[in-house]
Prior knowledge:
Layout: E1 4-9, E2 12-17, E3 21-22, E4 29-31, E5 37-41, E6 44-49, H1 52-69, H2 75-97, H3 103-110, E7 116-123, E8 129-139, E9 142-150, E10 156-161, H4 169-174, H5 177-181, H6 184-198, E11 207-212, E12 215-220, E13 240-245, E14 248-250, E15 253-255, E16 258-262, E17 267-271, E18 276-280, E19 289-293, E20 296-301, E21 304-308, E22 314-319
Helix pairs in contact: 1-2
Amino acid sequence: MSTIICLKEGDTLVLGTDSRFMKHDYSGIASDEEQKIFGVAPETFLATSGRKMVCDFQVARARKIADELGAPTDIQLIGEALKCESLSCLMELLELLKSQPDEITRQAVTGEALLHGCVLVGRTASGKLGFIAHSYRVQAGKVECEEEAYFGGRRQITYTVATPLQLGSAGQFAQDPATWTNPPVKVVRGILAGLKRSSPMIGGPDQIVRLDRTGAHWISCLPKAAISLVGNLCPATITALISMQAPTILGGSILGSSIAITSPTATLTANTTVDGFTCTGSGPFAGYKGVFASNVLALSQGSNITLLSATGLQVASVSCINSAGNFVGAGVACPYNGIGGSGFQRV
């Protein structure tokens, strides 16, 4: 599995990834020396996370599209064309994966996990620096794409996680003032290190490139020329895409940090200091609200609470609201603001 991290602030953007691919059935590590950030045009880069055959397809097609469009490079045009052309390749992949017996692949095939993701960074035709992130999932037997784009000046961090357990990292990173005050490269390195510690499916050397008004600069790349050692179905897969935008920091306290999570179950939007998470979209938990517990995501709707385990599977669905309208008897500690405390709180 894998992670892609993109930090955008002002006229600076930092894109980072790990270098690990797993074996096709997730039984072990296939390689820790796989290139994941590719130049597709001048000062324009693509990072991919998914099965190798689609990653290779997207890199080749993005370069071809950029060449056909010519100057000035416009990542909005490249991204739209790449999205359309990737769907047929992903449908081909879906058919190949249906015969795979492992549980992680089954979740991707049924839409319980994302099938593929990519982040394209660079400038628009008018010179605006930013990124476009695509998340692909299976819905009703077809592959659908959700897009997120950001060209603003306020610091925003978008990253992918390898396992449902790592969804809880959003609250931890968002509530750390260093995330919003440290230099961009240092923040990306810190998130990469944190995600590597929390999952054996993320690893290998960091790959980091910085774009700013002076051009593109490699901060960390593979120590040697990357020669792929893995097969077409080996994965660097994602579970969800998380976006965080810079909060107000007053007296060392984080005020109003916002988080959005795109996952196969629903699109979760959140203000962790105020009201927990609200699930929107068409997933099975659309309309639910939730907060993070230790290794558990607790989602509520009406008088029911559904707990999702670290593997993303439903582990409990119980009535937990008493006559006074308070959450009771859930059996797990659940923070009221995503980072601490105990007992369920109304969200």
